[in-house]
Amino acid sequence: MPKYYSITLKKSERNQIQKLLKQTKFNKGQKTRANIILKADKGKFGEAMSDKEIAKTENISARTVERTRRKCVEEGWEKAILGNKRGKNINPKITPEVKSYVLALSYGYPPKGYDKWSLRLLAQKVVEMKYVESISYETIRQILNAAN
Cβ–Cβ contacts within 10 Å for residue 30, how many? Predict the structure, then answer.
């Protein structure tokens, strides 16, 4: 069955990836993703390993191979290998301004019919007041815990 996301690298790209693999600054995940891309590359001869074969040789899941293959095709091999640091959101939805609104709201009186603010009630109110499009009660909890 043909793959929807097939990788075909130029010789120069293959050489760049192989050079990157020799660097010591590469972490294990980056090395694995680089190996996935090299093994999934059709290259000159149109032969690439299957996802299952790659997963077996790299000791990872086939789903990881699929995700790496997709990211390589959609965003380029550099982004697929190096990527963004996990957990580092470039444009966070919850800004310091939103956090201050949440804190100010939590110190105020709850709506009629409630004795105190619940996390879910705060989350609903923050969305209702259009500070953010959506927010989970877990995020509200983290904001309140950080502020003590």
Answer: 17
